[in-house]
Amino acid sequence: PFLHYTSFLGSQGEIVRVKALFDEGAMTSVMCATVFNNVKHRLGNWSPSSKRLRMANGTVVQSEAVWKGEVSIGGVRAQGEFEVLHSGGGWKFLFGKPLLQAFKAIHDYEVDKVQVTGIGGTTTLRN
To answer: Which of 68, 73, 105, 127 sits a CA distance of 20 to 30 A from 114?
Structure first.
């Protein structure tokens, strides 16, 4: 798996860093509820979510919240959002397809690196 720290800019200027698992198959980006409950007071900009998310095993889970704001990875920024649900300990943050698109991410599997582009330019992330 491709893992990299991702930062979220809170409404009061605080920065929340979380290790993200890049998942090109995830149709939304998701923060684990355990992590979210520890940092939501620093994030701000969140609200209850009405989304129901279908998991890989077919079960449908109600999202607990949605956050929208500025996301930063490798010094490059973009606007993004994520939903919140319990991961069961498998991951802290799923960097899903919408954020991959927002950062125009290109994954080079041969050397296991990801190029991201956004506000601040372009950079290469190494696993």
So the answer is: 68
* Burial profile 96-119: b = 16 or more Cβ within 10 angstroms, e = fewer: bbebbebbebeeeeeeeebbbebe
pTM of the complete model = 0.94
Token reading at 23: 């998942």
Minimal CA–CA distance to 49: which of 38, 36, 35?
36
Tokens encoding 15: 């920065």
Q: How far, in Å, are 4, 12, 120 from residue 94 at the CA level?
A: 11, 24, 23
Nearest residue to 105 via CA among 17, 1, 24, 12 = 24
Q: What is the pLDDT of residues 104-123, one digit of tens each?
A: 999 999 999 999 999 999 99
Between CA 80 and CA 34 the distance in angstroms is: 20
Q: How far apart are CA 51 and CA 31, in angstroms?
A: 14
